[in-house]
Write a structure and sequence with these properties.
By secondary structure, the protein is an alpha/beta fold. The chain has helices at 14-31, 47-54, 107-118; strands at 9-12, 37-43, 61-70, 81-85, 95-103, 123-132, 149-154, 159-160, 176-178. The structure holds inosinic acid and magnesium ion.
Length: 179
């Protein structure tokens, strides 16, 4: 049996995720009230969350996507990022909200945030569907980067569903599960 073919236990139901999304969307809508937003989703994992979240945000939004893969494993803090597909929106002078599926070590997001700031964005914030917490009760990404908005807390576990994969499987599950 493959590691990805184990039984999946529900961690957060579709209803719990929807509740969290409503809360984040309200915070974002309040914070950017009277302003415009450029939402940048990180492919592939963020596509499900972003589709739900953006429909709950009530400030004017544009959307773009970027596809990245991190060279760095958890043991390598190189932070170097491979941009496989870049966005084509000019970010200069815009309020950018990076939308990510899950914030783990933060290497992906800290690097990407620097890149977008370097391109001249007016502001850059991070919204993650979930944040991983370590055994010390702190976000694993503490000291590297933090999420300005996030929905759910995940303890030190590997989760799938709602956009997240194990070897490309399970992204279509409507809930978040533990393998
Ligand atoms: P970071 O650079 O370590 O924060 O990497 C975050 C990326 O790793 C996420 O965008 C996910 O693609 C992947 N990832 C981290 N934890 C999980 C998990 O529990 N399940 C599936 N993918 C994960
Ligand atoms: Mg991924």
């Amino acid at each position: 049996m493959n590691d990805c073919d184990k039984k999946i236990e529900t961690l957060y139901s579709a209803e719990e995720i929807a509740e969290a999304n409503k809360r984040i969307a309200k915070e974002i809508s309040d914070d950017y009230s009277g302003d415009e937003l450029l939402i940048v989703g990180i492919l592939k994992g963020a596509f499900v969350f972003m589709a739900d979240l953006c429909r709950l945000i009530d400030v004017p939004c544009c959307m773009d996507f970027i596809c990245v893969s991190s060279y760095g494993s958890k043991t390598v803090s190189s932070g170097s990022l491979d941009i496989r597909l870049d966005m084509n929106t000019d970010v200069r002078g815009r309020n950018v909200l990076i939308v990510e599926d899950i914030l783990d070590t933060g290497l992906t997001l800290s690097t990407l945030k620097e890149i977008i700031i370097g391109r001249g964005a007016k502001s850059v914030k991070i919204c993650a569907m979930a944040v991983k917490y370590g055994d010390d009760g702190k976000p694993v990404s503490d000291g590297v980067v933090s999420a300005d908005y996030y929905g759910l807390r995940i303890d030190n576990q590997f989760v799938v569903g709602y956009g997240l994969d194990c070897a490309e499987k399970y992204r279509n599950l409507p809930y978040l599960g533990i393998l």
